[in-house]
Structure of Metal-dependent carboxypeptidase:
Amino acid sequence: MSVFEDLMAYERDTQALGQIAGRLGWDQETMMPRGAAPQRGEEMAAIEAALHARRSDPQVADWLVRAEATDDIGAAQLREIRRSHERAVKVPGDLAKRIARVTSEAQGKWAAARAAEDVAAFLPVLEEVVALKREEGQALAAGGDVYDAMIADYEHGTTAAEIAALFDAMRPRLVDLRARVLDKPAPTGVSGHFDADKQMALTTTLAETFGYQMRHGRVDKAVHPFCSGSGLDVRVTTRTSDDDPFNCFYSTIHEVGHAAYEQNIDQAYLLTPLGRGVSMGVHESQSRIYENQLGRSRAFTGWLFEQMVPQFGDFGIADADAFYAAVNAVHNGYIRTEADELQYNLHVMMRFDLERALMSGDLQVQDLEAAWNDRFAADFGYGVDRPSNGCLQDVHWSVGLFGYFPTYSLGNVYAGCLYQALRQAVPDLDAQLAAGDTVAATSWLRDNLQTHGGLRSPVETITHAAGMTPSPEPLLSYLEDKFGALYGL
């Protein structure tokens, strides 16, 4: 075997162990008995220690010096292995192990505190998580910006300053559009009781409609919907609400966007660094375009309305036009994952500023709830009513995902660019979606973006697929056109 082949064989085992770690995380969120949490923490710590040792092994550095790629794919494989190795050697193994253990335990404590509306019960473990992540960030930054080092784990090639500038450019148009929309009468929403089993049955139909391969996946329930895995085993979760079926349906479509990306990556990249989504921003571009530009379109909501009527009978909506308005209603609310397209980015911008302050030390954990509540009231004009609608609503900080939140809005920006290109490529898109047919749309995304996995950088991935350098203009224009028409602005 060549040096390159030796390195790739070693990396294949590392990737396989990473998939096992991911499966443990999936089980913890879905099926693990609550009493198993302390043991699961030890299991997660043990596998993270093994992974860290493999990624930082000096043998990898030696292989990287001597390995030669024979094509662009091989060069990309080496680039990604080198990036992983350089990160791993900066973080002490015992720190990586402690982070894995504490974040595993913190997830359960967050879920319990959220259910009990008890912020005080969660803050001690969150303080521990923040301290460990700061320590990790300092090791990775090596004297540079700690939060930039954290962002690099999710969207390499961008910085906090660049994201802040993007958000500053987007905010005025979003705030202005929101003010004009909220000045108009709100559309009628759905009403009645929506049986959970019927929601889950329709959820399976929706997943398959958007191309999710059930042979290589499954749909389960979790407190916070997520997607897990890659390659031949990609799982999604959703949640149900007796009075809000959209929570279930659009959470599912969102997570299927993530899952389709992973399932559609070229299988030649299986269990290699290129065999997964290139970044969380690009990942979010897939989940958001599936959920919003496709799933909340007038064409597709007309089809969804026809699927819901036989299942749920009269739910207070007269026709497909009223249903489209209800699906896209702009309204006051606390929950990011339930926010309308117009206000969603404002939720993300708030979290970006708060977690950046947490990592810099400008905001202390014990002051987080007050800071959240003050910022929310300033941004949205009303107060938080309870912790589960406030600083306890998201799972991200409990599991140490600092630097992740801004990728949601980056994903929206990327999705705007992709949708503009998609509409040009598929002129009869609306007619197809009205028939519940997403094949042309999802095939275009598969062929132009998803199949390539981690071959290119995040910006190069979007530029290649959309034919333009990422810009917020297509997203902002789309929102202004859509909600301007909906609300008669």
Summary: The two ends are 66 Å apart (CA to CA). Residues 160-486 form a domain with the Neurolysin; domain 3 fold (CATH 1.10.1370.30).
